[in-house]
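pasting NADH-quinone oxidoreductase subunit C for the record, 199 residues
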Amino acid sequence: MSKLEQLKTTLQNVLGARAELLVEALDELTLTVKASDYLEVARTLRDHPELKFEQLMDVAGLDYSAYGDGAYDGPRYAAVSHLLSLTHNWRLRVRVFAPDDDLPVVASLIDLWSSANWFEREAFDLVGIVFEGHPDLRRILTDYGFIGHPFRKDFPTSGYVEMRYDPEQKRVIYQPVTIEPREITPRIIREEHYAGLKH
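structre below
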């Protein structure tokens, strides 16, 4: 039995019905759990002697609104955690969907793995997922006055407002974005001796 098959069997035996979905793809396992089971399952993954996922490697926030070219019909936001067991030398991806698309909330893993701190702040800042129980959930990459979440697929790439220094008011001001749409196709350089090269 391969390590992946062994992990899959162990997860099914230990978690039972709490393993809502267990998918193997590209030599990796993804475990999907309900939001109501998320914290309990995470604790089991960390503490059960047959699993022993001692390290949380990453937490990412995902927006599924355009998944499958818009054919996806399910909850919009998910938090995906990547776990590592040094004891058993295996990895696992754990996915939990936020039950409410209008206010996506899932439990924080910070009490189980302290490394969740900045990862969850990043997912909150960029995608807008609220991690219940996080002691310091505030923006980490965008400005404190920033409105919105840049990685939501409904957020414009140029943003809604821009900030600049106004010399007349002698302060930083916010104003609507003034970026004009522009052609981003690279120019083809046709000069014969461009940059000292002969073509």
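The longest helix spans residues 3-15.
The chain has a mean pLDDT of 89.
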